[in-house]
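Render this sequence as a predicted structure.
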Amino acid sequence: MADSALLQRTELSRPDVSISDAKAILGDFYGFHGEIRELGSQQDRNFLIDTGPERFVLKVTRAEYPYAELEAQNLAMMHLRSLDLGLDIPEPIATLTGEYIPQCEIAGSYYWLRVLTFLDGQPLTRQKFLAEDQVAALGDVTARVALGLKDFKHPGLERELQWDLRRAGPVALHLLKSVNDQSKRDRIAKAMIVAVKRMQAVAPELRLHAIHHDVTDDNVVARPGSNARLMPVGVIDFGDVMYGWLIADLAVACAALLHHAEGDPFFILPAVKAFHARYPLTQAELIALWPLIVARAGVLVASSEQQLSIDPDNEYVLGNAAHEREIFDTATSVPYSLMETAILDAVGLARSAEMTFATPLLPDVTPENLRLTDLSVTSPDFVADDWADQEVDWKLLARAAMETGYSSTRYGEYRLSYTRRLSERAPATFALHIDMCLPSETRAIAPFDATVKRNGHHVILSSPELALHLDGIDCPLEDGASVATGDSIGQVAGAAGSIGGLRIQLCRDTDLIPPLFAKPHQSAVWSQLCPSPSRLLGIGIDAPAPQSEAVLKRRNKSFAKPQKNYYAAPPQIERGWKEHLFDVTGRAYLDMVNNVSILGHGNPTLAAAVGRQWSMLNTNSRFHYSVVADFSDRLAALAPEGLDTVFLVNSGSEAVDLAIRLAWAHSGRRNILSLLEAYHGWTVASDAVSTSLADNPQALETRPDWVHPVLSPNTYRGKFRGAGATEGYVAAVAETIAAIDERGDGLAGFIAESVYGNAGGIPLPPGYLQQVYAMVRARGGLCIADEVQVGYGRLGHHFWGFDQQGVVPDIITIAKGMGNGQPLGAVITRREVADSLEREGYFFSSAGGSPVSCVVGMTVLDIMQKEDLQRNARETGDYLKARLEALGQRFPLVGAVHGMGLYLGLEFVRDRETLEPATEETAAICNRLLDLGVIMQPTGDHLNVFKIKPPLCLARESADFFVDTLEKVLSEGW
């Protein structure tokens, strides 16, 4: 039983001290005067005083607490401050008479007083989401404090404290007397009994020394780091410092993390790894860690219930109660064997002995007669979206068995059929079992000595080290029967001559009924607990593990470095369907950036049309075939009257490059006007007119002399803003043209996106293109509308972006979506402009206008028309924009929502007056969205704009998922 003095302390209420009392204390004892407010505490009273130059914390403690304990706390802080820990630690402040712990009387009660310096910063507890580096940092801070206190000695460390995890069992049982809810009391008591039993098994091996015992998200001080996240830089609240188990320090920190974990106990592992890296733990300590976390969780909830019974208005306790229940629920949601294995695995000490079996479970099944199914993300057996059929796995398994009568799924396979679209969390897709189809009456043999356990049709062969779980077997043995290796345990169920189904799973935890599937980030640990049945069968039935890291290394080795990939640790995407992408673990992502796939991914109509054409002919456009004429006619019909001639090319860059050549050839001059901050492509000419710093940081210094960038008409953050901005931006163009006129070089043309795409879809000022086009044409130049990103129905309200400005260009460039991923682009212009190029020779693009490319282009247009995708872009886009604008009413970081249809820009700023770009925050939000199942990337010169350009088939529920997920990130942090 816990000591009586300890139990009496658990029943103490906080000191009855008011703010006016605190004001008098601070003035009389310390000479401090200023603004005072109360801080939260469970059993003390804490007050913050702001004297102007400095801030301090007054701590008032009941006299029942021994002086030596408070002195130990002060000296522990002084000791840590004397070390080079790289942490901020509060400094104890003496009274006017030199005392550090004076005593005072208030209304007949005696209290101890202390004043400490206040550490500026924020606790992590208010931020619901903590990133992996924040979690690791908390573990590292805990280790640094533990190392600093390792050699600290003081008599006041030998304490009777309710938080001492060595006494967790009796303390919790005492506290539970105040819990009126019987079911709640029983649940906590049961968890504590199991946790204490597991702790006691290794208790003699646990190291003891001075520990802080309360390094939690509430007791660290955090400030923004280089990535704009709050990172812990200091530690406060030494009220629980004591002589105790070293591993208890980490257990307390990890328990606190669980209320940020969203139910995932693996969330703590970066903290464990970081602690171990700085202060190595023994195997016994690591084994004790999870039981200690459960014990801490139990004491927390029991203590809150007890404290509220004696102090029901304690707002600090009330505020923490929900967090503590969440901690307890998460801590008790998983088997001990899983977390013990996960913790050991995190520090490189995982244990998994090789298994050998004297006889196979199914001796009649051989590698020659067994057919394995492929249910992975890359399986060729899935057609369109039939992987969403709940019965598809068994259908494919049965089909595989048709040849020999024997088939099996693969162990360790990430099954696409278990994916979940529009899910913030990755679902459990990793198969910890196998399913087999095989002839009924196939005999089954005990592969090891075991005891039979039965639960209906579920049969378990259990040994001290391993359990074999079987479903689909006719077993004549009774529950509790013993079997020896080689004994018959029955046969596959089913009528004679039929095909039966058998499910097989192994588990090293013989008390556990394991899940059939594991989540990808837990699969390595679960596969240690539930190993492959390959050795059990004597047949290799494991799916090959994804090699994403190796693939990325090979990509970086052979693929030129300037060809960047999204994300530092990108998911390996191998399949898509509509607006959804799937990585090799079966994780689904909502694709909100892919304007290349205008129809969406995996379109079966397009795939069939392309396959048919490939099977007949694919060559270059110098051959005579009908589809090139059909597609050219179709494109010309989409353009304004007069733009009747089409060039077919491979890409948007090639289209822009050709458009510039046409302007040169037709005008006989070289000078081209372009917009600052614009992006047009990567060929020499298209790159020359691109001045986006995000794409080329040296863009402004490397332009050839024939390129004349003009002031970007950005009405949100440009030089001229708002409704009357047109005149200023047109004047800026006129000034540049005047300089060209003065030199007498002449003007070949002007190129601009019709909507400012790279800035996030900002509309050009009203009438801007009308006036600029007029000035350019007055000098014999051509006007080029770059519609590669913004055109082709994406704006919803207009098929072409230039329609918004009420102009008709001389040349249109298009690409990207028109091929739905196939390299395909086009230039549409007037016949006389096209003919001008012939004076310089003929034009040829190897794959431009090939039969396959033309079929792709035609089919894309057919599907767009059939599925009315421009209307969907308008309606879903308008709905999406309205929801994003609503976020701007709640979150100051949202500066503006640009664009229309399904080409939108969401701009993040730190200040809506100065428009300081929130660059680091935008990058962090993108990474957080990826974790939650949304693919999004930043754009703009400051990389602070979401360029929202999903496939035009985007469903309204997908738009909702995007906004809801973004709202979650903005609310909880990134």
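Summary. The chain has a mean pLDDT of 94. The first strand starts at residue 35 and ends at 39.
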